[in-house]
Amino acid sequence: MLVLDHLSAVLPTKTGVVLLPQAVMMRRAGSLPLCRRPLRSVVYILSCAGAFILGSLMTLMSVDPMRCDIHQCTEKIKRIDVEDTNSWLGMWGHNNKGPEKNVFLVIVFLSAPVNLEQRNVIRQTWLSEEKSDTLHFFVVGVGSLSEDLNTTIQSEQKRFGDMLLLNNIIDSYQALTKKLLASLVYVHYNVKFRFLLKCDDDTYVQISQLHRELKGVPYKQRLYWGFFDGRATPRKTGPWKEADWVLCDSYLPYALGGGYILSSDVVTFIATNSKYLKLYNNEDVSLGTWLAALDLHRVHDTRFDTEYKSRGCNNDYLVTHKQSTLHMREKFNSLKATSLLCREQFQVRKSYKYNWNVPPSQCCVRNDSSIP
């Protein structure tokens, strides 16, 4: 067995090994430029690294939406790719936090570019009673818009400053899940809040009553509150088609998309794990799937009339989906005149209480007309 001391090195040859003494090794090392002037080399390397880091920081500061106020951010976010949520997380990490808007409730509307009238009616009716500790965004995909429509959208944004414009999203039903995820990531990194309400631009909300309910809700964390379904069957055709759904024979329990509430920690989970999430066509189905394995307070509330069509009108409804602009004005005027949501209560289809003690396929039996 050949033992070498620290003064020698080994070089392989065709016939064996050759031992090089330390003096030879030092002469060879001395022929390398980095070894002849080590201090100059170190300074050169550090200068290059510093220049690279400084350039990177200046680039991030120029696009970092946390370094602008909440309305200016809607302009800067247009230059960020919504699909590259990895870069979002890198730029908006906790170490890069800037000034935050601090509110109790954030309202996120998924809206379409052409729905200016719906947005204006919401602003003029129930959103006009928005509390000072509430913040709202109308989320619109503005990719590939016509010049006229883009001009209209920009004018609306200049006037109200309450829109989240996603430049690289071509707005469509298939883009709803991307818009939802973009909204949750954006809100998480730019707003400090307690609860988030997601709804559509055809949803009417008794905002003052909902605000009071949220102030008294016992679950400040891990809250997923809405009107749940657990026995919906995946569609293979039509606008609700889910070609990539392979998890089971039905969707996992989810709150229907006309309106639901999430606590801030649930939004944090989604935002910080966005790069791992599967995006299905239906945004409410996607959300239920993302949250399926979490230990949450899933609160089924019949006062959320948030199905694909309204169940009617009930004075207890906190959130009512599928409302025309005429219906919104009627509800707002009725509340102003009588403090009641409905001029006349009526029911066009039965509701149900979700039974969490049975399999999801048996969860939702419509057998009691007294349930609002």
TrEMBL record:
It is an enzyme of class 2 (transferase). The chain crosses the membrane at residues 42-63. The keyword Glycoprotein applies. It is a single-pass type II membrane protein. GO terms for molecular function: galactosylxylosylprotein 3-beta-galactosyltransferase activity. Its main location: Golgi. Its cofactor is Mn(2+). It is found in: Golgi apparatus membrane. InterPro entries: Glyco_trans_31. Its EC number is 2.4.1.-. Pathway: Glycan metabolism; heparan sulfate biosynthesis; Glycan metabolism; chondroitin sulfate biosynthesis. One of its GO terms (biological process) is glycosaminoglycan biosynthetic process. Pfam families: Galactosyl_T (PF01762). Belongs to the glycosyltransferase 31 family. This is Hexosyltransferase. It comes from Homarus americanus (American lobster).
